[in-house]
């Protein structure tokens, strides 16, 4: 699903991703850990075609990112669901509209759209907010809309950057359960997190630890205390 060969990325003189070589197979659940500034978000943005490859090779969901023409980026994004820290949902649209949009642009039949959108709204406990405009939602509710939007297309790969960052503990556990269900059905998941509790919800997941833009051994304390 993901094949990286000496992938690097620089913001001017600062190499945020350095020589990363990594394979993620279809159906894997991978946590990305590492201190603030280690390069987690940058790596995810590369995988999504939001940043161009500076050096090395990257293949994601069958697309060679180092050779990817701009006009093919939407094709890549059809296969990859993303939940990002700065995810923009449409504030003046309802929860239903925000989630349905991803399917409307795929020209899916209306009845199928309705069924899928209602199912995911139910799964994320947003029923009462179905017709509420997103500007009237709490941070955690908006976060759930962003997650619903990434999941409703049934992507091959979900990239989630601290998806439970704004949520209380019970809701985080519930959401992790939903991510796991998707994973059980074959969706590959790459999730950045700082939280030991989140890591513990998927004990058999692989942990990729980043330090200063490179892959490193995960420190022991990752499993015994919260890392910030
Ligand atoms: N738009 C940008 N322009 C310049 N430098 C950037 C930009 N975005 C990130 N960086 C730099 O790249 C490095 C990696 O940042 P990144 O956002 O990937 O870290 P992160 O691991 O996601 O951190 P956090 O846990 O705080 O979200 C940092 O040194 C950061 O300052
Ligand atoms: Mg980040």
Question: Would you mind describing this structure in some detail?
Answer:
The chain contains 7 helices and 10 strands. It has 228 residues and is α/β, with parallel strands linked by helices. The chain has a 6-stranded mixed beta sheet, sandwiched between helices. Helix 3 (95-104) packs across helix 4 and helix 3 (95-104) runs parallel beside helix 5 (139-151). It starts with a strand and ends in a 12-residue tail after the last strand. The model has no long low-confidence stretch (mean pLDDT 92).
Number of helices: 7
Largest sheet, if any? Answer: 6 strands, mixed
Helix content: 25-40%
| CATH superfamily (homologous) name of the domain at 2-86 and 155-223 | P-loop containing nucleotide triphosphate hydrolases
* CATH level 1 name of the domain at 2-86 and 155-223: Alpha Beta
The tally of beta strands, per DSSP, is 10
Assign the CATH architecture of the domain at 2-86 and 155-223: 3-Layer(aba) Sandwich
What is the rounded distance between the termini?
29 Å
Strand content: 25-35%
**CATH fold naming of the domain at 2-86 and 155-223:** Rossmann fold
Order of helices and strands: EEEHEEHEHHHEHEHEE
Query: Could you tell me the radius of gyration in angstroms?
Result: 17 Å
Mean of residue pLDDT values = 92
| Outline | globular
Q: Give the ligands present.
A: adenosine-5'-triphosphate, magnesium ion
Strand order of the largest sheet: 6-7-8-3-9-10
Assembly state (oligomeric): single chain
Structural class by secondary-structure content? alpha/beta
In the predicted model, the low-confidence regions spanning at least 5 consecutive residues are: none
């Amino acid at each position: 699903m993901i094949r990286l060969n000496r992938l690097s990325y620089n913001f001017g003189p600062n190499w945020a991703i350095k020589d990363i070589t990594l394979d993620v197979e279809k159906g894997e659940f991978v946590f990305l850990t590492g201190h603030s500034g280690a390069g987690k978000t940058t790596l995810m943005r590369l995988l999504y075609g939001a940043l161009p490859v500076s050096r090395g090779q990257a293949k994601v969901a069958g697309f060679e990112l180092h050779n990817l023409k701009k006009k093919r980026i939407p094709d890549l994004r059809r296969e990859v669901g993303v939940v990002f820290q700065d995810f923009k949902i449409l504030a003046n649209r309802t929860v239903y509209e925000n989630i349905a949009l991803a399917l409307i642009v795929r020209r899916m039949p209306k009845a199928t759209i309705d069924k899928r959108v209602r199912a995911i709204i139910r799964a994320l406990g947003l029923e009462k907010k179905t017709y509420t405009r997103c500007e009237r939602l709490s941070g955690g509710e908006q976060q759930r809309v962003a997650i619903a939007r990434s999941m409703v297309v049934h992507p091959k790969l979900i990239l989630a950057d601290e998806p439970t960052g704004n949520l209380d503990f019970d809701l985080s556990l519930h959401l992790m359960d939903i991510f796991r269900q998707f994973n059980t059905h074959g969706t590959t998941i790459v999730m950045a997190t700082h939280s030991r509790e989140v890591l513990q919800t998927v004990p058999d997941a692989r942990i990729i630890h980043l330090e200063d833009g490179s892959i490193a051994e995960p420190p022991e304390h990752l499993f015994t205390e919260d890392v910030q």
